[in-house]
User: What shape does this take?
Amino acid sequence: MSLSVSLQALTDYDRTRVQDALHLLLEPLGGMSSFVKSGQNVLIKPNMLAGKSPEKAVTTHPEIVRQVILMAQSAGGHISVGDSPGLGKPESVARKCGILDVIEETGVHFAPFEESVPITLETGTFHHLEVAREALEADVIINLPKLKTHQMMGYTGAVKNLFGLVVGMRKVRLHLQAGTDKAFFALMLLELAERFPPALSIMDAVTAMEGNGPGNGDPVHIGALLASTTPIALDTIATTMVNLPEQKVWTQRVARESGREGVSNNEINLQGADLSALATTNFRPAKNSDVNFGLPTPIKNLLKNAITAQPYITSECKKCGHCVTHCPPEAMTIDEHGVQIDYGRCIRCFCCQELCPHGAIITQQGALLRLAEFIQGKRDNNDKP
Ligand code: SF4
Ligand code: SF4
Assistant: This one.
């Protein structure tokens, strides 16, 4: 089966240019009217991770959200826009990232995810999940991810953005369930994306995030918009564009290992702009957070601090305590001296780093992980012609 991904160049978030680029982007997929029919309830799900201004590239840019709302309205949909931010009250987060202004200006419904509904998955690994009521009630979900690095999963895009359908602290429980097993967590993300398949995913990769993502990385200009009906296929093209190898992107890696479609470029019918013209080799990935060496689990547990990266609290810490509240295994404590981490309990989920509003948590790699990277770097250099 050939899966379609559409790609368009877009230099900035100028309103008219965004509007034109989105129309061109959706043309090869049949336009918005192929996805939204008159009278349908449409849930638009941007990335609203935290209350940061659009320039920080943490959240989907409000101009993209505006134009998608207008297109879905023209197609006759009843529109709601919602997400469950990692940190902060949804209304305040939506205001700070500019999306609430757009919601008010276009007169659509703001739907902060607050009520969870238990669901049963008939197939797959995760039989019970709880998701936002809005996701169950929508006729159509339009997924609006932002292209960003992610310290735990390597990358966050179309598949990972749907994790926002899990409300608030229930995300923490799923992290705890997965523990240090990234493949297990990636599988949960893939199964969630399959249970709530967006009719359409449109990725904001005009300004993306590199480095210490997804909450505190650096904005980087890529200049692209991508769209697809298949989140995995969209992520395949996006990660190819920014030169992130599949081994570093857990959702892609597990999608391939589990035989899912859309992981290979040759399965994808890419339409629109030329990928090579938008591709970059300078995109800075998140730091590697572990190395496997194929060791048995008891030895890996013994060498945990040497073969993984750890969160490290810097002097930027304001002792607000948000990280402590959100740490899934309760491995963090706070007192008058600051935040302490019990690295024996820490599951390396990097939720603390993702949610720290002051960018005060960095990643420190263990000695064997650094050594492995050094050797790999030498090998890569030797492989160069
Ligand atoms: S590390 Fe960040 S989130 Fe944690 S207490 Fe310090 S400032 Fe707050
Ligand atoms: S200390 Fe940070 S990385 Fe470790 S478990 Fe807690 S939130 Fe996750």
Observations:
- The longest strand covers residues 200-210.
- DSSP finds 16 helices and 16 strands in the chain.
- Residues 311, 327-329, 331-332, 341, 346-352 surround iron/sulfur cluster (ligand 2) (CB under 6 Å).
